[in-house]
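Ticket closed. Logging final result for non-specific serine/threonine protein kinase.
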Amino acid sequence: MMTLLMRNDTLTESQTQFYIAEAALAIDSIHKMGFIHRDIKPDNLLLDAKGHIKLSDFGLCTGLKKAHRTEFYKDLSQAKPTSDHADSRRRAEGWNKKRRRLAYSTVGTPDYIAPEVFQHKGYTNSCDWWSLGVIMFEMLIGYPPFCSSTPQETYKKVMNWKDALIFPHEMPIRANARHLIQSFCCGAESRLSNLDEIQRHPFFLNVDWDHIRERPAAIAVNIRSIDDTSNFDEFPNADLSWPNVTDPMKSYQKNLAFINYTYKAFDGWTNTDRILGHQLSQHQQQQQQRYQNAVQSKELSKIPSAR
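Final structure:
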């Protein structure tokens, strides 16, 4: 889905209706099994060979992880208030550039995270529906509603969602679409979080929920052959060259004497025969001498066992 949005910038309401409906079914199936996904974003909405939604990446799903990975954002509350009033065209252009950088990043973005997740006061599976509302906004408008130039500014907008959730006049959408987004991106206590209620929303009028996966996808996926990779993201080639080793045998022989040897207090043995200011005992001196002789003669059997 991320690649689809990068290629198309925005989707039509009909296309958005199709993908949001299938994503809602996928999210609901997880909730019925007692899990919360907690990482709903376009990157994790994959398209199968027929163009239908497949939900992926359950690494943050409850039952697999104890907590959402918000460590990166723990200091975002110290950020100064933002005054980002760029028009929708500039925000869309800026987001497209940022999105391409994030495609190669492991840090991520707080754009899709519900505000209650940041508060560390407990939250329910409704946080997944918030994320779906953010994705729906992005599909129709061209960028997430809280996107900013820095994660700190994005965090501030998410936490101040009542004022930051703005629908640009130059990108008009139908009232039903706007209402659904607002029903997802709102306080957790009043958020639309039940599939039956979602299915009855006017935005999904005429959607055949029981047979949606049997109908043609909103955007056809063109696959020319079984090994066609044109629909996958392209990443820079990684440097897989081996580091230069001047003499592998020399390194091997050097480490050979330490096989199965666990004692780690040899760093203090110097020519002064003192460790931490204390005189070595006669037994320690004998053990040190036996060790040094064994290394020099490569007789591993003479190395004393670690105690």
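The CA atoms of residues 199 and 205 lie 8 Å apart. No further action required.
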